[in-house]
Amino acid sequence: MRLSSLLSPIFLVVTAYAAEDPSASSTSASTPSASATVEDPTPVGALWTAHWSAPDLTPFTQHCSNQNTYTAKIYKLDELYPDLKDQAPQLKVFYNKQLYAGSWAGIDVHGVGRELIHMDMAEVPYKVREWMKKEGKQRHYSVQGGDVFFAPGAIYPILPLWVDDSDEGLECEGVFDDLETYSNEPKDGAVIGKVSHTNIGEKEVRFSVEALQVKAKAGRQDRRDEL
């Protein structure tokens, strides 16, 4: 019997992720010297996590604020089997040599510490489903029939799409649809947001996605226009 036939799907998935981890690389003649520093690529989640706190919003007025909350399954890479034994092989193929999008904080903890969220496609917001259809080559959401799998950090680059329009009137209609206005730090006219989460059971998480639009207060904007 060939050794490959004995390997479980989860082992293959973990192996694929470990291949991205510089610490898992073997030493060879082409390996940089010990004095050289090899930096990990920055996960996309880290590029888009919120770079602001409540005091940073003082120069701005807040508009169209809204929040959506979701409940989903979540697995560390060594927990996929047996629950996801049917999906694990395709997850291995999908994520092979792809950069991990990051944890809830946007960082990459590497190896089996990495997590994947599992949601029914019907529970994913319509705007996110449409974005996945449009971005056919995106590499952060693995769609398998009626299921979708993604790292927590994959929420951040398209965060506004996870939030419904607010009920503040027509001026808020479609505000969260245009990712061109989305920013990870407050600036005049930008849409900003945050993600929070709570583990509510074994392999289960509840996460909330908040988005709002900020506009510079009149006095500050007038001074900015004068410069």
How does this structure look, described?
By secondary structure, the chain is an alpha+beta fold. It has one domain. It is 18% helix and 24% strand. The chain has five helices and six strands, in the order ααβαβαββββα. Residues 1-18 form the signal peptide. Keywords: Signal.
List the helices and strands and how they pair.
Blueprint: H1 9-18, H2 44-48, E1 60-76, H3 88-95, E2 115-120, H4 126-134, E3 141-144, E4 147-150, E5 191-201, E6 204-216, H5 218-226
Antiparallel strand pairs: 1-2, 1-6, 2-4, 3-4, 5-6
Helix pairs in contact: 1-3
Low-confidence stretches: 1-36
Strand order of the largest sheet: 3-4-2-1-6-5
C-alpha end-to-end distance = 75 Å
**Strand percent estimate:** 15-25%
Mean residue pLDDT? 84
H/E series: HHEHEHEEEEH
Helix vs. strand class: alpha+beta
Instruction: Please give the radius of gyration in angstroms.
Output: 20 Å
Portion of residues within helices: 10-25%
Q: Describe the global form.
A: globular
* Largest β sheet strand count, sense and barrel closure: 6 strands, antiparallel
Number of self-contained structural domains = 1
Helical segment count: 5
Number of strands: 6
